[in-house]
Fold this sequence. Notes:
The structure holds two protein chains of two kinds.
Chain A: H1 2-6, H2 8-11, H3 14-35, H4 50-70, H5 74-78, H6 80-97, E1 99-101, E2 104-110, E3 113-115, H7 117-133, H8 143-162, H9 166-170, H10 176-181, H11 186-204, H12 207-226, H13 229-252, H14 259-269, H15 271-281, H16 284-310, H17 313-323, H18 332-344, H19 372-404, H20 409-433, H21 451-469
Antiparallel strand pairs in A: 1-2, 2-3
Helix pairs in contact in A: 3-4, 3-19, 4-21, 6-7, 6-8, 7-8, 7-20, 7-21, 11-16, 12-13, 12-14, 12-16, 13-14, 15-16, 18-19, 19-20, 20-21
Chain B: H1 8-33, H2 35-42, E1 45-51, E2 58-59, E3 65-77, H3 87-94, H4 98-111, E4 117-123, H5 125-134, E5 141-151, H6 157-160, E6 163-165, H7 168-173, E7 182-184, H8 187-191, H9 193-196, E8 201-207, E9 213-216, E10 232-234, H10 238-248, E11 253-259, E12 264-271, H11 284-293, H12 302-305, H13 314-325, H14 352-358, H15 361-372, H16 380-396, H17 419-426, H18 433-436, H19 450-461, E13 465-466, E14 472-475, E15 489-490, H20 498-510, E16 527-533, E17 541-548, E18 555-561, H21 571-584, H22 590-597
Helix pairs in contact in B: 1-2, 10-21, 13-15, 14-20
Residues 336, 343, 346, 360-362 of chain B line the site of zinc ion.
Amino acid sequence: MADFRKNFLARVDWITVIIYLVFIAFGWLNIYATNYQEGQELGLFSMLSRHSKQFVYILAALILAIVVLIIDSKFWVLFAYPVYGVVVFFLVLVLFLGREINGATSWFFIGSFSIQPSEFAKIGAVLIVAKILSQFNFSVHNWRNMTLLFGAMLLPSVLILLQNDTGSAIVYFALILVVFREGLNETFLIFGVIGIFLFLMTLLIPFSVLVPLVSLSALIIVSLKEASFRVLLFGALIQVLMFVALIGVSLLGNLELNAEQLVGFAAIASLPVYLWIIWQKRLRSLFVILSVWAVSLLLIASVDYLFNEVMEDHQRSRINQILGFESDPLGRGYNLNQSKIAIGSGGLTGKGFLKGTQTRFNFVPEQTTDFIYCTVGEEWGFAGSSFVILVFVGFLLRLLYLAERQRSVFSRVFGYGVFSIFFFHFFINIGMTIGLVPVIGIPLPFFSYGGSSLWSFTFLLFIFLHLDTDRFDVVA
Amino acid sequence: MRNQFSRRKYVLGGLVVIVAIVFLIKLVAIQLVNPRYKLSANNNSRHRQIEYPARGLFLDRHGKVIVFNQAAYDVMVIPKQILPFDTTELCSMLNLSVDELKSGIVSARKYSPYQPSVLVRQLSAIDYARFQEKLFKYPGFYVQGRAQRAYQSDIAPHVLGYLGEVGVQDLRGDKHYSTGDYIGISGLEKQYENLLRGKKGIRYFLVDVHHQRQGSYEEGRFDTLPEPGKNIQISLDAQLQKYGESLMNGKRGSIVAIEPSSGEILAMISSPDYDPGILVGRERTPSFNKLKKDSLDPMFNRATMSRYAPGSIFKIVQALIALEQGAINENTGFECNKNLIGCHNHPEATNVKKAIQYSCNPYFFQVYKRIIQPGIYSNIFRDSEAGIEVWREHVLSFGLGSGLLVDLPNVNGGFIPDAEFYDRWYGRRRWAFSTIYSNSNGQGEVESVPIQIANLAAIIANRGFYISPHFIKAIDGDITTPEEYTQIKQTTVSPKYFDIVVEAMHDVVWEPFGTGRRARIPGIDICGKTGTVQNVHGEDHSGFFAFAPKNNPKIALAVYVENAGGGGEWAAPIASLLIEEYLTGEVLQIEKENRILDFNLY
Ligand SMILES: [Zn+2]
């Protein structure tokens, strides 16, 4: 054991380092392939092309990794607040001094060199979460502690949102997973998921379909729980009665309500009736279920109202665009279709390195950045794309394992933070290119072109690896 | 260290595994099971063809088409798909030299080996027909249809304007355009670009390696149809315009004719001019360069851009302002005191009407003095400072100075000086009427452009109001003119004083000593006023403005002939010929007409 502790290099988790090297090497090959054009000499060091720039970024990242391994890991524990302060400062600064690219003001330019502070802000956010959560007597039940935690966690997100870079801003919500691991009541998570799900559904499915659907599922759950078909019938009856009553009211009151509104209001109006009956019968669990249902209906109604009545046309289309719902043929729908064609055309084994045609025709604008996974899919086929997914799974599970073996809360939380960020990027980016997740432009870690994202991911990973190597030095 | 929540790592690990499984299932679906994606991409490539909308036409006030579209064809090349071919045949079909062909292909390859580039622009229909037959022999080449402008006759180049390739600024500012597109650069083509251009359609085709179409892409679900541009009817009278241009042939100058009751511009001539048809197609660039080099500057629209001192025409405005201000009344007379300012010999101007008729300079010297120094302040400097602002406000209400709205890009506003202007020039309170008296007769610092003078004629014809001069009459047959071109703009001078100047302008033409004798038309009650623009660089410019008939006027106009001497000499007869043409549809004053047609200044 003594030898093991002395030999720093032996304590580094080489499995993770090897996965990291595989990722950046494979990522670079794909960027090279995307820029490659037959009959055109691609000098490795023609500094204008993206693959050679990325080559330089990778070299810098490796140096960075070594530096991070050399710096005493206590630095990060001690300087978590200052580091956080610096990144927040730069996020504010970029709002004033940054240059706009694709509608987002998130870049600093120093000559021809550009830096995206929002990428580096992740490091600050993960550090601050680890710092706050590892504080002595921190409790997830203390609302003051939680307010501080979420405030610190989401401040960068708000600043990035101000830069008009929605994708990068959403990433910070992934850190909720860390808080979950540290004891956040799971109902929050469940409610959060249901809330987001309903929010998206409200925008996707017409009001008149969604409301009866949610009502019906609530009724079914209730009747199953009660093991009574009568409840289901009774519920349906109340709704129909409410519906008829509403028609009567709208006729008498000369209100012009359409079918959609009638159905919706009927469902909402029948709500107190249910709650009253159940309260009478003292069915606590049913009361909870129906309360959830009631809140869901209110959420749907308010989102629907906000979206259709309050918002302006351009705000609506902006939201649709962010969520990838816009069916604009030349917009995101078109890109997505092309992205799927590129991946799909790869087949089992792919067209081979440098043999892809779809990815090199520049039909998807963010070919080397957000849509780099297309090139993997087209040139390396199912074999290559599933390989990337499997290695990512191994990488993420390894991070979980490493995080759990930490002896200090700070290191563990930091590990979970790193895990959450990588998991979220993996989920959104690949999900988006294969059409499972709305088009949200964030990079695929270690694959996508760009120095800022590569360096910040390297930072995160190697700070954690260094914390991991020092885990025995820490008295928990 | 383990704690009570450590089991939650399984939830998170499970989440990772579930996401990965869902991803893998989706990958199996699109990469292994569904052949659609493979088919879409593997053997085919997608070709995006822009369907250009037809640009809107221009019609004249009688509904006659004056600008239309003619089919033209761009030869496109995709360098990657070229196979060895017969160079000489291709060159002869496309009227290219071998070198031009080679450099064209090289620059296309530089742009992109896979994307189409334009090799030859706007091939004529005949060349296209010949090339189309042989096209199968030239893989990598194809033809994209596109319309170009064509003109019924060579009239009104300055009004209509021309098209050109879209510049970087417009490319960035507007998603409608892509490199190589055409956009209105000047005239009405620019003014109404957004109405004329329509909306592009896009069709996607699947094409094989030889660029033969294999059918639509995804059953056309990404295709959009082009929307044609809107046809614009303009107020121009093509026949009047053509006649006016023939009269101005060989002269430098301009004519603007307006229908007073509506503000519609009937004719706008700037001479020398050019044939708009030469700025189209393959001759465009050489023609353009030639026009730009021409020392007579035929592309310059004198009617809206040339600033002249309004000269004696301005006396009408001075008279109206003086009457409104009470500086004079209808019967005020002034001696023709040539010590004040030069004049010619004429009977005594015993009232303002006669003063206009004889165009007496000392008379308007006195008039302007009373306007500028009304005696409100005993200090003449202070008095002038206040007086000029009152005067200027009146003048601006006549559409002079800045602010005359016309639906053309680049309309100069002329200049009407204010107190601040002279303060800068002489210093505050260091100038008075005696410093600025030359404005009294439309010399000095006042300047106007011909369309403002035509508008002034319309104001007098209307007895005190105008509607902003405009060309737009109907958009796609819909005759709701934009609001800004229907509003009546009243001058600050009350209508009752206008009859006095109308009578005066009538006498200018019809009384024995009037300066506008040459404007007489038998049987037509024309009113007018000459204005000679003093020119230090050479012969004076001849100016005349008029309207007719005196009651219920149908046409108001301004004529300027540069370096042609007094206004009565050349501008007045030209005005009379145009009025006769417009009101009667024919010209009987043959002798007068021949005198004009034979007169050449360059
Ligand atoms: Zn006189």
